[in-house]
Amino acid sequence: MRGLITGKDVLRHGFTILRWYGPACYLRCLRALASRTPCTFLSVACAGPALRARRG
Questions:
Q1: Exposed / middle / buried, residue 12 (Cβ in 10 Å: 0-12, 13-18, 19+)
Q2: How crowded is residue 46: how many other Cβ atoms within 10 Å of its Cβ?
Q3: Would you kindly state where each structural domain of the chain is located, as residue ranges?
Q4: pTM summary value
Q5: Are 12 and 19 in contact, with CB atoms under 8 Å apart?
Q6: CB neighbours (10 Å) of residue 38?
Q7: Along the 56 residues of the chain, how does pLDDT read in single tens digits?
């Protein structure tokens, strides 16, 4: 397992990502795909709550 987000995985499992992690996480995944920088799903999925915690 490489641990990298692939476009195929995000598009193939979009409904599951939306249902389990919400639309904000799915949009972050799409943004990560558009930027073409290698990253893990965990870093993208956890980016939202971590950013909110740092600001507060």
A1: exposed
A2: 14
A3: 7-55
A4: 0.72
A5: no
A6: 10
A7: 356 678 888 889 999 999 998 999 899 888 888 888 888 888 888 886 555 444 44
